[in-house]
Amino acid sequence: MRIWHQSAVELDSLPQYAASLSRRYAEVAAPDTEVVLHGVPSGTYGLSSPAQALGHPAERQRIANLILEQVRQAERQGFDAVMIASFAEPALREARASLAIPVTSMAESSYLAACSAACQIGVVTISQAGAHMLQEGIAQHRLESRVSPVLNLDPEADEFDLQRAFSQPDGVRAAFESCCRKAIAAGADVLIPGEGVLNELAVHLGIREVDAVAVLDAIAITVMHTEMLVRAYRGAGLRTGRRRGAVADPA
Is residue 201 within 8 Å of 175, Cβ to Cβ? Predict the structure, then answer.
């Protein structure tokens, strides 16, 4: 099985994150699964961080269009599935409407798995703009009653702050655990690091739970969910629904 990992960040500008992803997939994917990393091209964000850019709707649409063109190559190259490894979920609906293979997102896979384990899910992300974006996505998935609260680090961070925290973690770790405790106080019974680099940092720091509440590993869950969908497409008759909202049938 070959899975096209599509990140919304420039992976060459976040080498520790890219290396962590490669290690994680080697650990959690099935032995017969190959996950191939793809990021957006160098220079996509200019002087901005992805977190800053994706907070603006026009920039989010620009990135979505770029990612859609990238993931369309997956089916032509014989991949079995596409994994949009971003909580921003760029081009998720359009990719599903364009491809005959399964398309998953880190956000949706994490939410659905967490809903199978707890009644109330808390999400911790890196900025207020990111929290608003995630809330919009949760509403689109019609999961508002299950996935709440969505909180952000204080002080806020971006992906480059998180990369530095791989070697100097104390400040980000304290902010993350504090935010988790606020989510737990608000009723969360499972926690999701709602940003890809933040998730990898939590794994790197060994944060599996906070005050006996599980911290879900979004990368592991997403690849496992993607593998399951590939098998479900092959053996259980599952297909992407196209009666509502599809922009086009696959070519």
Answer: no
- Residue 123 structure tokens: 């999400």
Share of the chain above pLDDT 70, in %: 97
pLDDT at 134 over 70: yes
Q: 78 in the Ramachandran plot: left (φ > 0), alpha (ψ -120 to 50) or beta?
A: left
Compute the average pLDDT of residues 136-145. 96
Between helices 196-204 and 15-28, what is the axis angle to 10°? 70
Residue 168 makes CB contacts below 8 A (sequence gap 6+) with none
Q: Cα separation of 25 and 38, whole Å?
A: 14
Instruction: Please tell me the distance from the alpha carbon of residue 179 to that of residue 158, in angstroms, as a whole number.
Output: 16
Instruction: Report strand pairing: 34-38 vs 2-6.
Output: parallel
8 A C-beta contact, residue 221 and residue 104: no
- Rounded to two decimals, the pTM is 0.92
Residue 247 has pLDDT above 90, yes or no: no
Contact 240, 82 (CB under 8 A): no
What whole-number distance in Å separates Cα of residue 148 and Cα of residue 183?
8
> What is residue 245's predicted lDDT score, i.e. its pLDDT?
56
How long, in residues, is the chain? 251
| Cα–Cα distance for residue pair 3/79, rounded to 1 Å | 6
Answer for the pair 55, 134: CB distance below 8 angstroms, yes or no.
no
Average the pLDDT over 75-87 and give the result: 97
> Which residues lie closer than 8 Å to 12 by C-beta, 6 or more apart?
18, 39, 42
The residue type found at 162 is: L
Give the residue carrying structure tokens 């890809």: 196
How far apart are the C-alpha atoms of 127 and 216, rounded to whole Å?
Answer: 19
